[in-house]
Amino acid sequence: MSVVARNVTVCPDVQVQQPLAVLGRDVEVPLVNGEKVTYAALDYAASAPALQRVWDDVAAYAPYYGSVHRGAGYLSQLSTDLFEQSRAAVADFLDLREDDQVVFTRATTDSLNLLAAALPSGTRVFAFETEHHASLLPWPGRGLEVAYLRAPRSVSEAVAALDAALSTAGEGPKLVCVTGASNVTGEIWPVAELAAVAHGRGARIVLDAAQLAPHHRVSVRELDVDWVAFSGHKLYAPFGAGVLAGRADWLDAAEPYLAGGGASRTVARQIDGSVAVEWHQGPARHEAGSPNVIGAYAIASACRALTEAGFDALQAREQQLIERLRAGLAEVPEVRVLTLFGEDHPRVGVLSFVVQGWNSSHFAAALSAEYGIGVRDGLFCAHPLVRTLLGGEEAAPSECGAPEPSLPGERSLNAIRVSFGAGTPDEHVDRFLAAVRELVAGGSAWSYRTEGGRCVPDTRR
Ligand SMILES: Cc1ncc(COP(=O)(O)O)c(C=O)c1O
């Protein structure tokens, strides 16, 4: 991949052998017993490793780095071109409508907060309580009315619940916020159906695609959503940028998300000592300050790489891993996989579970310290959902070292999540399954204690 800006090819061609290879494949990590193993990265849902292709593209551009929209020099102009080309690449990736716009943000959380700040006053917002906190929390406290819908147990229940809520919502602007794929269960939400319901009831809809976009093609046109948000670091492009894309009208009518240079077209001192500002329309209105061109370019590079690899092929590969994982976990009766819509519901490569008799933090810590496997434990910034799935309202932290309340038949207080995607070899899933079997059968080989809120091996002996 070479960089073409100002109509010249300025960066060397990068030859990429495996377009979806990721960095960190050969990283060795220490085990608590002093040995070393190759790290098995199974926490893609938190932050995915960088694609080699993204890394190479960024490295090829780095010497040409310059300011964006604020420099007369050649590299500034080149970087400005590259930034705007990156916007166009994201628009292609998301299959945006002609008048839609792409705003570069810091990540999904930032994107949804931007949208929340731009909603017309009095907008009524509807979100399922199953959302990630990034989709649950930006709305209250801004003069918006927020309705949280109870966790549905099937697709049809979700669609009916939204329809019922919107049917009594009355006139005025309304926004529905929905996730594309759950960061807890990996289950895919019926986005197109919910969008049809929303539009049928005069509401707009924003798609939180943080977990969907890395795994599935997201066509704004086909899903018919009004906005979509996602994060570069979950899309194999960990350079601090994210995206909010979609309809321009509400964004153009809103106060700039950040006030400052880049968002302002003209600033004039007034006779009374104040300043009069004319703000830009379009993406620049909400991108005040020097833009993160490397972050934007990295996202564009990942978008191209995923598109070229083809989501059909990616999904087919990921589905094999999901089946392998599910079949392996099904052989361990102590494991309970968390699901909202049923275990056979379509999902991306994200799966959470609890192990009878185990504190999940202890289990995850043992996977890391004794096997070199990186997963996540906790409530995954989706507290209401995980508590619903675990069957309780309250979750109190407990000491990880002490095998905790979940005696046979009792519920766990948090869960373990395993997640993967491009570049994950079968071997990582197999190693994970072997470790689960061994831990469940024989317990952890080490003792653990809680330190700074984390479960860690007790090496004080
Ligand atoms: C479904 C979902 N939405 C939003 C977010 C927030 O993403 P970020 O932390 O990149 O802002 C996450 C992060 O895990 C997520 O899984």
From TrEMBL:
Residues 42-432 form the Aminotransferase class V domain. SUPFAM superfamilies: PLP-dependent transferases (SSF53383). Its cofactor is pyridoxal 5'-phosphate. InterPro entries: Aminotrans_V_dom (IPR000192), PyrdxlP-dep_Trfase (IPR015424), PyrdxlP-dep_Trfase_major (IPR015421), PyrdxlP-dep_Trfase_small (IPR015422). It comes from the Bacteria. Pfam families: Aminotran_5. One of its GO terms (molecular function) is lyase activity. The keyword NAD does not apply. This is Selenocysteine lyase/Cysteine desulfurase. It comes from Streptacidiphilus jiangxiensis. The lineage of its organism: Bacteria, Bacillati, Actinomycetota, Actinomycetes, Kitasatosporales.
